[in-house]
Predict the structure.
Amino acid sequence: MKYIEDFFAKYSQNQIDKWFKQICLAEAISWLFLFSAMIWIRYDRDGLLPTIYIIIIGNVHGLFFTLYLLLLVNARKMYSWDEEDTVFALLAAFFPFATIWVDKKLAHLKL
C-alpha cells in the first residue's frame, strides 16, 4: 500500500480526484460493453468477430477495474472514508454500474 501512496504522492489531489471520477465512469461503461459482448457471443458462438470483441472488451474492463482499485487507496485518504465506506467502494467494483454510485455519493464526502 505504501508503494501505491508513494506513486500517487507526486500528483495533486485535484488530479487524483479527476482521475478517480473518470475511472468510476469508465469502469461502469466498460460493464455495458462487456454485457453487449456477452449477448453477442451468446447468439453467435462460432463467430470470430464476437470472440475478438469479448477478448478486447474483457481486457479493457480488467484495466479499468485494476485502475479503480489502485485509485481507491488514495480516494480513501482523500475523501476521509471510514472502513464501512471503503468496503462499500471496494465491493462496488464487483457490481455493474455501482462505481457511478461511489462517484456520486461517497466521493462527495470530502473534508
In short: Residues 76 and 82 are 8 Å apart (CA to CA).
